[in-house]
Amino acid sequence: xxxxxxxxxxxxxxxxxxxxxxxxxxxxxxxxxxxxxxxxxxxxxxxxxxxxxxxxxxxxxxxxxxxxxxxxxxxxxxxxxxxxxxxxxxxxxxxxxxxxxxxxxxxxxxxxxxxxxxxxxxxxxxxxxxxxxxxxxxxxxxxxxxxxxxxxxxxxxxxxxxxxxxxxxxxxxxxxxxxxxxxxxxxxxxxxxxxxxxxxxxxxxxxxxxxxxxxxxxxxxxxxxxxxxxxxxxxxxxxxxxxxxxxxxxxxxxxxxxxxxxxxxxxxxxxxxxxxxxxxxxxxxxxxxxxxxxxxxxxxxxxxxxxxxxxxxxxxxxxxxxxxxxxxxxxxxxxxxxxxxxxxxxxxxxxxxxxxxxxxxxxxxxxxxxxxxxxxxxxxxxxxxxxxxxxxxxxxxxxxxxxxxxxxxxxxxxxxxxxxxxxxxxxxxxxxxxxxxxxxxxxxxxxxxxxxxxxxxxxxxxxxxxxxxxxxxxxxxxxxxxxxxxxxxxxxxxxxxxxxxxxxxxxxxxxxxxxxxxxxxxxxxxxxxxxxxxxxxxxxxxxxxxxxxxxxxxxxxxxxxxxxxxxxxxxxxxxxxxxxxxxxxxxxxxxxxxxxxxxxxxxxxxxxxxxxxxxxxxxxxxxxxxxxxxxxxxxxxxxxxxxxxxxxxxxxxxxxxxxxxxxxxxxxxxxxxxxxxxxxxxxxxxxxxxxxxxxxxxx
Amino acid sequence: xxxxxxxxxxxxxxxxxxxxxxxxxxxxxxxxxxxxxxxxxxxxxxxxxxxxxxxxxxxxxxxxxxxxxxxxxxxxxxxxxxxxxxxxxxxxxxxxxxxxxxxxxxxxxxxxxxxxxxxxxxxxxxxxxxxxxxxxxxxxxxxxxxxxxxxxxxxxxxxxxxxxxxxxxxxxxxxxxxxxxxxxxxxxxxxxxxxxxxxxxxxxxxxxxxxxxxxxxxxxxxxxxxxxxxxx
Lengths: 699, 232
Known about the structure:
The complex is a heterodimer. Chain A is an alpha+beta fold. Chain A is built from 22 helices and 25 strands. In chain A, the strands form 7 sheets. Chain A has a 5-stranded antiparallel β-sheet with strand order 1-2-4-10-7, with helices on one face. Chain A starts with a strand and ends with a helix. Chain B has a 5-stranded mixed β-sheet, covered by helices on one side. Chain B is elongated, with a radius of gyration of 30 Å. The N and C termini of chain B lie far apart (87 Å). At the A-B interface, β11, β12, α5, α8 and α10 of A face α1, α2 and β9 of B.
């Protein structure tokens, strides 16, 4: 509407309105557009260290009133040591003018205003611009749809008054601490968090807040302003999170903060809920670990362990206990190794999550070989300790210490891809929290995995329930080999998806080679065989094992990165598209409901979810009816884009499914870990119908 | 057979305990290190403005006529240090003539220099940056604006500005007759570039000088300055 040329800077201010005509008693949404030249910036409602906010002075007809402006979330503009809050891009300040009921129908209302602005690059330029808008007053309000949509899009950039969030702050001589307590269903990341204070003399604008996840929300510690005088009664501003979408056109979740200032001690008490959260996460992990025992990937190992207990019980209590203790040591050592590697990777800046080790095809291949070896051992092809003579040994001797320890390691390795429902929350907490918390949660997870066995070993009455050892044990041992063979099949499938059919064939070849070597060991390597022949058998077995490892390693080097797009197109008749932040933003901008599925081939729960819920006829119909865009974030191999997107939700494990509502301002709906048809249908309907609350308020 | 394997097995157990213990130590140590690192206070302090109530840093600076000014020269007098940049919109705001024909800053300078206050206007802009002028241009600007500082200091190296933690233009420091800093901060409480915001604003500099000259304590002694950044 009006534009000002001010020397080298250009700040255009233009106003648009959503209504072409307005009825008395109604409201007119208006927008003031600030368009700084490239490299220049305008300021937020609190400018920070340099500059000042634009000021609007209204000149309205009698009875008309204007509501305060809504300011989109600003960005930090840094010129060390000074930092200000503003906009380095085009921005719309949104306002509302109320038309009094007394306004005469048929008249034209002139809405006039003076906007005083400052734009800065290195230097600052200030100016005023007069703008005016004629709005016909009519019996009914007529809204311009295109402009209304543009308004809604702009309104999405304005921080919201958060439902369910509460804030508290405390101040001491050096720092300002802000606690944000989130509602339980809220999803947010602790990375990329900014607090834009909206008055001077509170925090040091240039210092980045130290953000810590605490149970129930976030704690931000900021340096106190050097100009602070006394303690303010409240601290207000905007808390901005990095939104799940990343990339150039990132959207952000931003909340208006109004925090009463309490004693630091009081806040510290609230902080003690951190212990409650740690405890909760620990208990959840314990429960999750217990459930892991029943997961299909762990059950074979558990069965073998039970067998071991039965064998040991046949001996005496002490042996049984030692056996369980070694198994526990195996589990815990592996858990701690996982924590250590996880922390080291995180320290190195890699983006990882639960099950990360299975994202590497070489690890999957080696795991498959190990399990294949264990299966052959159970089937009786060879014996690990040929010295004793296995047949009698099974009945009279407890299994070896090595086997007990390795059993624990194996159970942990196999447990990781089985993300049990309770596990998701606890592990996400552990992965995002500090090292100490990670250690506690993973230890609890390990203990959960161990205690059922330990109980059997420790309580004589329970042990008494286990059947007497005998020849039947040999049969059971051989039968239990088959779940392990099935596990090898599953791992082969994962490897095939990750590294292609050649890698899968290589694994099969390696297995055949390994089997021949181990057969030779079993056939010629026993005690009764002459010394030379036994030596030869051992060398053959060792050579075959080494060669098998070499084969697996050399063929799994090259990742098939295109696997995602190709393989995914075939799953069902649904048109899944690979996830990217840009695609998500584009689909949302076009006003479609988006279902985003974080999944991985090695995640069994994900496959169950897809089969049971997502590919069911009812859900497919709903997806077609609501014109839902389907995005799939595949985490089968490590993908920083997907890891970051997951982290945006504060998650680090799959399955994870979210539904983005049609309204651009609405928060995404987070689906439960285990999907049901009903839950998916309900979420899709809610997403398709959810009106934007901001749209209603302004139009 | 069994008696032969038992010590062997025991040594294996020992190996596992040792290996497990080492892993535990390693992981635990790593965890503790991380824990300490994440809970340690940030080491880099923000740029601090000067604290009021303590001795102002002593300085020697040259004005547009080549005269040297030192803090020690003004023992026994109230001293105002004003940072300005004549091209900055916020400085312009406070020099623009109001209804009574003098600007806000000029009025302060006239009033308080008459009451015995020493007023040094300081340009800390570096050569080539906004606000930098030659000595002659500076005097010409003073004359044209009808300004009445005791002297205009050319702090082209930014030494005086950095010494006093000057971040913005305009920004003020007030030093008492004993050389103690008594006020540091903004000219008033309305962070805007609009001249029409001046009449209703609380002028911190005026309030501080009025209290100082009346022998009363200064109520608001430190505020966050607003305006452009100093063009060091």
